[in-house]
Amino acid sequence: MDCPICLDEFENSVFSLNCGHVFHRQCIQPLVNERTRNVCCPICRRTSIFSFHTHYIREVFFTTTVNSASSSPISTSTNESLILSPSSEETVSESVHHEALTDLRRQNQRLQDENADARTALESASEREANLRSTILELRRNLGTTRTQLEASKAKHTKWKKRAKELEVEVMKEIDNADDALRERDEMKREVRKMRKEVEVAQAEAEAAIRTTARMMKQAAPRRGRNTWVAVDNTRSDDDSEVAIANSDSDSDSGSTSDASVRIESKNARHTGANNAVTGRYRVASIASNPNSRPKKEKKRELEYGRNIRCVSNRRPRDPDRQGVPKCTDKEGHNFSGKGSNQYQKKYNCSSCGIKISERV
């Protein structure tokens, strides 16, 4: 019989616990609690009181195999060693072997149960592992798909972000263009208003010139057989030349009327002298009524109306040797003042440059 702790055969110092398990004394003594003097059986985990009495061995080994009458007396005093006969040693050995075999069977059964439980747990773990592996494979496939979708989403995000920037730039350009268009519209409105005012002014001046021309022609119409005075309006002329149309009446003897003649006079030719320095005037041209008669010297006379008087001090005469018109110091034009009047005309004099203008009544 062997010790369950050291697995050596029993020779001396056999020690038994309350549960009946037998060990070497030197094997079981280190397991004793020094404070409580209790020991836990390494086999059955039952707590026993550690002592050196031998009645436990008698209860285990001699209860069923040894008669109390034929048995030799055994001392129960403390620290008394157990003395066995040869036949008793054999019986004790068989009992110990039987007890050890029983313990081994119990251990084997327990191990088998534990093995069965471990196999069941292993099968369950294998099933869970298989399920986890399939789940992992499915997750890996989903991960690959998700990564592909993520890359596509990133590409779309980059594309739309770039498109958003382009649209933002286009919107800013459109806003700038709209601002420019609004400014151009406002500028065009101002130009239209300005042109409208100019057209209204030109229309008013043209109407005034027409009325003046009609009045002058009406006044000159009764004078038959004489040179006819025709007014030429050059206030708003945009061409480089002016056209003066003269109507001539027929001679008093013949009673016939000749055709109208056209005379083209250059603008610059009127600015060669001091008397021709004012624009916006009406020039009266004398044309002979009879083309075959002796040419007479052309009579010219300056006519000036209030709002048509303008300063021409910056203009130069065509002949550089001749003296130009004195520069007028007034920003708005000549500073005319009434000098006097008579039955036929009103006279004006510029206090800045000294030019004299007369207006027919």
UniProtKB/TrEMBL annotation:
The alphabetized UniProt keywords are: Coiled coil, Metal-binding, Zinc, Zinc-finger
Q: Which GO terms describe its molecular function?
A: ubiquitin protein ligase activity; zinc ion binding
Q: Which GO terms describe its biological process?
A: protein ubiquitination
Q: Name one Pfam family in it.
A: zf-RING_2
Q: Where is the RING-type domain?
A: 3-45
Q: InterPro entries, per this entry? A: Znf_RING, Znf_RING/FYVE/PHD
Q: Which residues form a coiled coil?
A: 101-212
Q: Where is this region: Disordered?
A: 216-274, 313-340
Biased-composition ranges, Basic and acidic residues, are 316-334
Alphabetized PANTHER family for the sequence? FINGER DOMAIN PROTEIN, PUTATIVE (AFU_ORTHOLOGUE AFUA_3G12190)-RELATED, RING ZINC FINGER PROTEIN-RELATED
- Name of the molecule in the record: RING-type domain-containing protein
